[in-house]
Specification:
By secondary structure, the chain is an alpha+beta fold. Helix content is about 25%, strand content about 30%. It has helices at about 20-25, 100-120, 140-160, 175-180, 190-205, 245-250, 255, 260-275, 280, 285-295, 305-315, 320-325; strands spanning about 5, 10-15, 30-35, 40, 55-60, 65-75, 85-95, 160-170, 220-225, 240, 300-305, 335, 340-345, 355, 365, 370-375, 375, 380-385, 395-400, 405-410, 415-420, 425-430, 435-440. About 30% of the residues are buried. Bound molecules: zinc ion.
Length: about 450
């Protein structure tokens, strides 16, 4: 896990190891700049005197979680083939958990309450067709995904000398599907091409068996008109089937196999012919993010999900959000990917509404006008050293304030309640995110076991 390093003027330098950061701090050459993620500032160094290496930030945007990986890249030319080999070393794995669902639920509830309150205003003139959404408008829950992702990209740009960004933009590359020859040998049948086709079919057929609608089972590619009877390998002749259906169908044509269900046969044939529209193949959030990324001024590269999957299988890397991100784009070798994941959870900054409502929308209680108490705010990272009373001990975690001065602290080992504010020291201000280190969990890999829990924040929930 890398430690971020800034120079004396707060300009980013290359990240260093935990050990090196400890030594720099012990020798008085550095100060702690930020606790989570741990960032130090060198007191005697300027960025002009330092050598920087190219760093790339890789993104795999998801609806609930966005994976990010910060990698150091080294490009060498393979003497035998003359191709560029790009080896990446992972410096940091970050998982950003969005709260799009919470936002949607809160807005739905607010709308329902308002309707209930104001539903019987009969004499109000009709109000419709009088508002338009601006160009590029996204629903608040989707806009939040773009905004929080961009917030973290800007933070990482402040703390590390990022030179390039690569984003997984689309699930599959339609260009590659139409013309398998365009991008060299990787795109020919069987390698990357196969992955693009697979992703395309999963999206087109809704990730379920076309014959029995089975979901969450391994799906196989099935030729609607069997190959042995002259059926082609074109995407319009392919569908997805679960293993039992695929076996039962065998090399029979579709009409014969589904003789008892002609409607389903018709539907499958119609769906097979209809190409998946580009609009359905990509999602609006990813495009909005891509446009925002280009405004950062860094070199932005777009990659497809098919290539990510191909990289991941080829390099034998398990599937997690951030390891997917590390496999996005052009990767020939990936080093040091077995490391703890820095989990960032979007928590929001509290509620805008000051009235708490019951289930039926009646006021039940009121929140205080001020969001702070005794100099603390809900979400602050605090250390409490309790010297008297029943709860003697040291606690570190996310605080929830109470106006009576007795706070609750969410620590890595659970919630501690009723800690008097005078025992608390703030370590970092609330910034709308909760932090946690998560040791990487690898199933069935031949990888090194996760590193033991060390000092500091590694196993902490904030
Ligand atoms: Zn089936």
């Amino acid at each position: 896990m890398a430690v971020f390093v800034l120079d004396k003027r707060k300009k980013p330098l290359m990240p260093c190891s935990e050990k090196r950061a400890r030594l720099l701090l012990e020798r008085g050459r550095a100060r702690v700049h930020r606790m989570v993620p741990f960032t130090i500032r060198l007191v005697d160094r300027r960025v002009e005197d330092s050598a920087l290496q190219p760093l790339r930030l890789k993104l795999d945007p998801g609806s609930k979680t966005t994976g990010m990986a910060l990698v150091r890249e080294k490009e060498t030319v393979d003497a035998s083939t003359g191709t560029i080999v790009r080896a990446s070393t992972v410096l940091m794995l970050l998982e950003l958990q969005h709260r799009g669902h919470a936002i949607r639920d809160a807005l739905t509830q607010r709308r329902a309450f308002r309707r209930r309150r104001r539903g019987n205003l009969r004499y109000r003139p009709a109000r419709f067709d009088n508002r338009t959404k601006p160009e590029g408008w996204l629903a608040p829950s989707l806009q939040h995904r773009v905004d929080t992702t961009m917030a973290w990209i800007h933070r990482l740009m402040r703390w590390t000398p990022v030179t390039a960004i690569v984003q997984e933009l689309v699930r599959f590359d339609t260009q590659a599907l139409q013309n398998p020859e365009i991008l060299g040998t990787e795109y020919q049948q069987g390698t990357l091409f196969g992955y693009e086709v697979r992703e395309y079919l999963l999206e087109k057929w809704g990730r379920k068996c076309a014959y029995c609608d089975a979901e969450n089972v391994p799906l196989e590619i099935d030729h609607i008109h069997p190959r042995s009877k002259g059926g082609s390998d074109r995407v319009s002749n392919l569908t997805l089937a679960c293993h039992p259906c695929n076996q039962r169908k065998g090399n029979r044509p579709l009409e014969q196999f589904l003789a008892k269900a002609p409607e389903r046969a018709q539907k499958i044939l119609a769906q097979a012919k209809a190409p998946l529209r580009d609009a359905a193949a990509v999602n609006s959030t990813r495009w909005a993010l891509f446009q925002r990324l280009q405004a950062t001024g860094l070199a932005v590269e777009a990659a497809s999900g098919g290539r990510t999957k191909w990289n991941r299988h080829r390099l034998h890397i398990p599937k997690t959000h951030c390891l997917d991100a590390a496999c996005v784009g052009h990767v020939d070798a990936l080093q040091r990917w077995q490391q703890p994941v820095f989990q960032v959870r979007a928590t929001g900054r509290g509620s805008y509404q000051r009235t708490r409502l019951t289930r039926y929308g009646f006021p039940r209680g009121y929140l205080t006008r001020s969001k702070s108490a005794y100099g603390f705010q809900t979400g602050d990272l605090v250390r409490a050293v309790v010297t008297t009373g029943k709860q003697v001990g040291t606690y570190l975690g996310r605080v929830a304030i109470r106006t009576n001065g007795r706070f609750n602290i969410q620590t890595g080992n659970g919630l501690v309640q009723g800690i008097p504010h005078r025992f608390c020291t703030r370590i970092q201000r609330a910034d709308g995110y909760g932090y946690r280190w998560h040791p990487i969990s690898v199933k069935g890999g031949n990888d090194a076991p996760p590193r033991p829990q060390g000092r500091g924040f590694r196993a902490m929930t904030i």
